[in-house]
Amino acid sequence: MAKRGKKYQDALAKIEPERLYGPKAGFSLLKEIDSAGYDATVECAFRLGIDPRKADQMVRGAVSLPHGTGKEIRVAVVAAGDKATEAREAGADHVGDDDLIEQLSEGSILTEIDSVIATPDMMGRLGRLGKVLGPRGLMPNPKSGTVTMDVGKAVSEIKSGRVEYRADRNGNVHAVIGKASFSAEQLVENYAALLEEIIRQRPSAAKGRYLQTAAISTSLSPSVPLDPAKSRGLFEDED
Asked: CA 177 to CA 234: how far, in whole Å?
């Protein structure tokens, strides 16, 4: 592994060993140690006590962050007729039916979109693109609200800061929750919204401790470990 630079080492030295930070203290520290030199993305990672190999323990969904992600989200909508018009009026960046499916299949616009929404009647035709869209996290899914007849609402929510999350094969969930330029309070509020949703999605089949670890980081910073058990009083000062 390549040796980390001095800025990274200096940042790492400010994180107290063995300490699990409360959200308020954790985000305040993260802003202090961020040295990216640009408005870095802030990410959150949870390790969950689930077995993602079992269908009844998969954790997947979407949540609207109160302060958005700080990023302009580009949305494609696969729909026809009135639903296509609804999508355009809501601000979708790409709208179409067979023509859009063909563009997605060719990959010509994949670098121009961050989310794909589809009406249910289009999923039969769009389903064949699973190998193209799936690895990029772009395949529409009812659980994340991206297969819907209410395309206008879906476009508006995603544009205003709704993020999708999904547990990987190791039971980890990663999600963008803002930018380094956000205040610590804004980041805590976004974190709280994500945390509440993930707790709500706990599978009934999951046994033992559900929230095992939580950590936050920016694009270039070391991770700041948070106390996963702290789900109330997130704005309270710590001892």
From this structure: 16
Tell me, what amino acid is at 13? A
The b-or-e profile of 91-115 (16+ CB within 10 A means b, else e) is ebbbbbbeebbebbeeeeebeebbb
**Strands 94-96 and 75-78: what pairing?**
parallel
From first to last of its 239 residues, the chain has per-residue pLDDT tens of 456 788 889 888 999 999 999 999 999 999 999 888 889 999 999 999 999 889 899 898 889 899 999 988 899 999 999 999 999 999 999 999 999 999 999 888 898 899 999 999 999 999 889 889 988 889 998 988 899 999 999 999 888 888 889 899 999 999 999 999 999 999 999 999 999 999 999 999 988 999 999 999 998 899 999 999 887 777 676 54
Which element (helix H / strand E) includes 61? strand 60-64
Distance CA 113, CA 95 (A): 11
Using DSSP, state whether 209 is helix, strand or coil.
coil
Q: How many whole angstroms separate alpha carbon 144 and alpha carbon 194?
A: 14
Whether pTM exceeds 0.85? no
Quote the CA–CA distance of 39 and 180 in Å, as a whole number: 6
- What is the rounded distance in angstroms from the CA atom of residue 151 to the CA atom of residue 85? 10
Tell me how far apart the alpha carbons of residues 239 and 237 are, in angstroms, rounded to a whole number.
7
Report phi then psi at 165, rounded to 5: -140, 155
